[in-house]
């Protein structure tokens, strides 16, 4: 937030005040825009070996009344339209829907100083370009998640809905709808917070929806809380190549993946509800990305249920290889912990732990330094119910019908020290959950339901420091 900054003039923004800024912005975007529906810089994605982007309601003051557009003079000597009301006390700028919402909103954000709070009134902002936030420690706040709507249905410029490049940015209490690319994206930033935000696409299982709702990548200090994502064609809530992550109290449904932690280290994922996705929660480590060796994600007290939606991911991406009906999937990631979760009604399986393997539909890794094995994971004290009742292909062919609550592909690193207990994927006190090692790397020849080799414990992961 703003800390001890000196108070400055607070500002109303409309299409009149921000028109010149908005026009310049539109011309700039027009020069570099196109039909790309996601950024193409080298950041995380679920595309193997390539890069691309492809709750509780809060309030913030009150909407000003009156529409008087007589000019008044700001303390900086410029003129601005008056509206007949005061800016909310904790806002440095206040934006209302207008005839030119891009000019008004982007103008306020471009004029904002580090530490400012830019507030948006109730109503719908119609936006046809990507909105950018570059100031540090800035807060962009709506009047409430279901009250302030940023509608990108007519977007034809820019890759995403909102693009964040400043550190310490908080977005809070509004909804983003119908972006052709990612909903809200942050690249290589520190201390980014998504709070009480919804990102939505109305069409169900549509490949025309954006890839990600939230997309912080290459970042440290990521917080996503009290938020919702509906309809993403990759992951609703995604964090990639990042550290020090907290994802809590969110809702994700009708996405391919509800939540995905990818090539990241030190995440806490807690008290989320994921349902009606293809898969509930993914913990992936993929080759070909600038940051490797993702590990140590702690998932607890999540409800992961009825994730049986069709997979409408883009062919060739890692997420497109996930079979419908998966609760949790750990892919080539180490030392993760799943505890005290409710895992039910996922028709393929509750938890599947697999190595990165072409045999499950993934592209060749083509990276000699990539560790393809999933090792040292700890699944304990979870509740399993009605999983695996109608497994999708190819799991049905390798695991049978019904499939077990917990599946492991049996693939072990041949170069690792034999019988190293730290590398075992341990199961402990998961009630009546059943288990199958389907021996993928042995050609399915030695399948086993014997729990004894995996009945063990690892040291539990610490809470995220901020938790």
UniProtKB/TrEMBL annotation:
Pfam families: Beta_helix. Residues 34-92 are annotated as: Disordered. Residues 46-56 have a biased composition (Polar residues). Keywords: Signal. Residues 64-85 have a biased composition (Low complexity). InterPro entries: Beta_helix (IPR039448), Para_beta_helix_rpt-2 (IPR022441), PbH1 (IPR006626), Pectin_lyas_fold (IPR012334), Pectin_lyase_fold/virulence (IPR011050), SO_2930-like_dom (IPR022442). The keyword Signal applies. Residues 155-285 form the Right handed beta helix domain. It comes from the Bacteria. Residues 1-33 form the signal peptide. This is Parallel beta-helix repeat-containing protein. NCBIfam families: beta_helix_1, para_beta_helix. SMART domains: PbH1 (SM00710). The keyword NADP does not apply.
